[in-house]
Specification:
The chain is α/β, with parallel strands linked by helices. The chain contains five helices and 13 strands. It has helices at about 5-15, 20-30, 75, 80-85, 150-160; strands at about 35, 40, 55, 60, 65, 95-100, 105, 110, 115, 120-125, 130, 135-140, 145-150. Strands 2-4-7-10-12-13 form a six-stranded mixed β-sheet. The longest helix has 13 residues, at about 5-15. The protein is globular. It starts with a helix and ends with a helix.
């Protein structure tokens, strides 16, 4: 995607009034690799490579969530004298992010490239996801780790009502 189109899409994302409308816009313009039905995206920013993001059905993404589809560590490594002298060249790393069905991602969570989040998953706010999350999990933390099961969470919620 060229920088002008990206800037235009970023402005549109910022101006859209709801997460449901942002998800609909992303689906209509095919910005993500895939986006399912009944999706809400509160973040107003686009990942650097949105085509590397795949979201299933019934996904809710709270505000401030970041999808990190690449890193730029290679720029630091390529400037180290020992690697410049030897001619070693490090390349930028990219990776897809896959989110399953029936997933809630809490506010200000960071999802790193190469991560697969299973189906029936709840992720607590402020988590940093650096490795895959299995189906039927409740996870939180930095780094994110499993703290319970989706089924247990549903049972507890049912008792509260």
């Amino acid at each position: 995607m060229n920088k002008y189109r990206r800037t235009l899409y970023s402005i549109i994302m910022y101006l859209l009034p709801s997460g449901v409308k942002r998800a609909s816009f992303i689906k209509r313009t095919k910005l993500f690799g895939a986006i399912g039905e009944n999706v809400m995206l509160q973040p107003r920013s686009l990942p650097y490579n949105p085509e590397l993001c795949f979201l299933g059905d019934n996904v809710r993404v709270a505000s401030g969530v970041e999808f990190i589809t690449h890193d730029v560590v290679h720029r630091v490594l390529n400037n180290l004298p020992e690697f410049q002298e030897s001619g070693t060249v490090f390349k930028e790393k990219f990776g897809e992010i896959h989110i399953g069905n029936n997933v809630f991602i809490g506010a200000n969570t960071i999802i790193m490239y190469g991560v697969n989040v299973g189906s029936n998953v709840i992720i607590g706010a402020g988590s940093i996801i650096v490795k895959d999350i299995p189906d039927n999990s409740v996870c939180a933390g930095a780094p994110c780790r499993r703290i319970g099961s989706f089924d247990d969470f549903v049972k507890k919620r049912r008792l509260v009502e």
